[in-house]
Amino acid sequence: AVESAPEDPKAAELASKIDKINRALDQSKKEILSRLRAPLDTRNPTQDLANRLQEHEKSAQTLRKLESEKSAVQREMDPILAKKPLGPTASTLPLKLSAANNKIDDINTLIDLYNKKATASMFLEKQAQNVEGIVSGFEEQLAKDGAIFDQPNALPSRNQQLQVMRMDVASKKDEFNKLGRDLDVTEQACSSLQRSFNEYCPDIRRQENDVKQLKNRYAIVNNQLQERSALTQKATNKKQDFQNAAQSLDFFLVNLPNNTIRPTDDVAQITAKQNSQKKVMEDIKRKSGDLDKLKFLSRDLQSVLNEYEVKSNTYRGTLNDDNDDDGDDDDDNESILKKRQTMAQSIQRKEKDLLNRFSEVSAENDQLLSQLGMAKSIKTRV
After folding, report:
1. How would you write 36-60 as a 3-class SS string?
2. Contact 21, 70 (CB under 8 A)
3. Cα 344 to the center of its chain, rounded Å
4. What is the pLDDT of residue 9?
5. Whole-angstrom Cα distance, residue 373 to residue 379?
6. Is 229 helix (H, G, I), strand (E, B) or coil?
7. What CA–CA distance (Å, rounded) separates 138 from 168?
């Protein structure tokens, strides 16, 4: 029978130590993977990440300690392994040491990759919070913008407010670009974990969706501002056209000749007034064609102003769907605003007043023409 090589008395002790280190390494990797696999607390992701990074640093310290212990065991092991032949226990030490080295390399890589992923995620979550504040602020400003009221310089003032806000919104574009870059870095860190350890990042789809939603909301704010600016400019031009038509009609009505009969008028004077009044009625009939133009310009302007109000209310409604708690305040604001006259209502009233006035003036002058005819026949008989 072949006698087995004598066992070094320290071999069993070293085997026990290296087994203990391997078990501790397995436990350490398990803790890191558990941290990696658990989704973040969406109520406060940055605080959750900060806590995890602290715990992760403890894992890194543990690994350094185990690595140091492994090196110490290896130094004790070298003289034993130098003896030939090796005893049964001593012959298992190289495999146990190789397993420990592989685990340390593996965990070092895992720690590095998770650290990069968690740090990238921290920057991303902080930037998402920053951008959420920015876009919410713009949404609140837009939500306060509603119907254009009947007050001096309402349209130029509103247009100026919109231009200032457009510049403010444009100035924040870099923040949204940074958000996109932070997401890219996080995605790359997640891909590295997936390639090296086949580990999927549980938060990446939510984070991608959050970024997409924030960018969509920013784009909607931009679109709203562009559309509202275009509508205020359109309304400004149409209001000028309506005012020109209204002033022309008003000037015509105010400056009609006064052919009222006086008791002292003779037949010749009455005849002259009758001829003048016939011309007045011809002018009124001709001018009545401008009424359709006035009505068209009025309705056209009201349509643009109403479109502005509907667009504002619709947008505000979409925001309120997401923030139902604010409903009472919005109802109070709406009831206050309804008491004020909008520019559309003012234009409608002005159009109505002018049309009524034209009808009254037309009827009065028609009646005056009849009176002149009667007066002339009476004077002629006398």
Report:
1. HHCCCCCCCHHHHHHHHHHHHHHHH
2. yes
3. 28
4. 80
5. 10
6. helix
7. 9
How much is the pLDDT for 254? 94
The 3-state DSSP class for residue 149 equals strand
Looking at residue 2, its pLDDT comes to 43
Main-chain phi, psi angles of 185, to 5 degrees: -65, -40
Angle at CA of residue 160, ends 159 and 162, nearest 5°:
65
Identity of residue 173: K
Provide the pLDDT for residue 82. 87
Pair 239, 156: CB distance under 8 Å: no
Answer whether 229's CB lies under 8 Å from 162's CB. yes
Give CA angle at 209 (203, 212), nearest 5°.
140
Tokens representing 134 are: 């920015």
Residues 218-269 pLDDT 10s:
999 999 999 999 999 999 999 999 999 999 999 999 999 999 999 998 999 9
What single DSSP character describes residue 84?
S
Q: Is the pTM of this model over 0.90?
A: no
Rg of the chain taking only CA atoms, in angstroms: 44
Q: What is the 3-state secondary structure (H, E, C) of 322-342?
A: HCHHHHHHHHHHHHHHHCCCE
Q: Which helix (H) or strand (E) holds 71?
A: helix 45-82
What values do phi and psi take at 263, rounded to 5? -55, -25
- φ/ψ region of 153 (left if φ > 0, alpha if ψ in -120 to 50, else beta) reads left
For tokens 């919109």, the residue is 162
Q: What is the pLDDT of residue 320?
A: 79
